[in-house]
Each structure stands twice: as C-alpha cells, then as structure tokens.
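User: Sequence in, structure out. Go.
Assistant: Echoing your sequence, followed by the structure tokens.
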Amino acid sequence: MENWITSHDRVLAQRQAEGWMFLIEAARDIRTTGALAPSSPALARALTDPVRTLAGRPLNILEAGAGTGAVTRTLIPLLSPGSRLDIAESNPRFTARLHHLARTHPHLAGRRQQVRIHSRRVQDLDTDRRYDVIVSGLPFANFLPDQVETIMGRYLEMLHPGGALTYFAYLGTRRARALLSSRAQARRHHAVEEVLAGYQRRYATGCWTVWANLPPAKVWQLTRPAPAPAPAPAAVGARR
C-alpha cells in the first residue's frame, strides 16, 4: 500500500509539472503549443486505440507533436518487441523532456533503440519509413489551411496502405473563436475545418468524443485505403 501511495504521488507530481510546463509554453507561443494542458489519460487512450488493436506484432508508429509526452507514455508500454516509435517534436524544451522520458521509462530498459526522437516538424521529417499508425497531437486549428493540407498529405504518404491516423480537435472552439477572433482569423479557422472535413469524408473510419479532457475533444481516425486487388486474368476459351 505504501509503495502504491508513493507511485501515485509521483504520477500526480509529474502531471502537475507537465501542466505548468504547458502553461509556460502556451504563454511563449499559443499558436504552436495549441493547448493549455496536456492530453488527459482518456484522450491519450483514444488516440492510441489503433496501436492497441494491432497489439502483438511489430509496428512502426509515428507520433507528431508529442508535447511533454502525455500520449507518449501511453504508447511506450504498447510497444511489442520489434516495434519502433518515431517522435517528431519541434519545441526544444518539449524535446528535452521526451529524451528524458525515453531514457528513464522502465518499459524501454535494454531497448532504448525502440524510440527515436526527431527535433523537427513532421512535414520536415526526412524518412522513407512507412508507418502502421500515426498519432497526431498537432494544433491544426492554429495553422494555415495550406499547412494543414501539407501535413495531412504527408501523413497519408507515410502510412502503409491500411494504416491508421488519429488526431483530435477541441470541442467548442468554433463558437469561442467567433466571439474572440478577428474576421480574418475566423475565416482561416473555417478554411482549416474545410480542409479537414475533406479528408474526413474520404478516409474517416471512426470518430469519438472524449469528455474527460480539458477541454473536451473529438478524436478522428482516418485509414489509408489498401490498393484494389489486381483483376483476375481473363479466362482462356474452352477448347472445342
């Protein structure tokens, strides 16, 4: 019981520290941080559900915009032997925290090579690796429509056929932006929503609302279509 309390207190202290770090980074640049608090365990679980579904075999996974690692800590225990997790995070202070997480997480003892952290934007990621699952924590609502189009196109390019992409959007942001934003910002936000809606119409295979998050969020799952099967060879005419 005493060990449980010690562990529980450690987790609470960690979450409190992450909360303060998010507030500090949001004060630096809310446009790129995109949130005032780390993802909740419920949101992290929803975002990583495709990995859980595919558990038991080696997977290539990409996490983009990992922040302080709230979702990363949910992903790491799901890594089966032979799996690899690439993380793209452009904020150097968040990157330093992610490196510490990878060095100290007990699940990675003796196999640190399973996690590789890239200090860059996902659209600048120089890799020919294809992924089974991509988990995106990027604040699309804060980007320009062309940037969102570029990122979404890159995601689909990096997915294996049949691979899954998850991302989220906060609920209630449209009304809040309508009240607080300039007309130009509101138009930009609407244009971003239209870009995402196009991808949802073509590729969405799931959508869930996570109420246990601050603020509540909607999680989307998109799947890259598998190639159509090759046509069967033409039947040879019967001999007379």
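User: And one key feature?
Assistant: The first strand starts at residue 60 and ends at 64.
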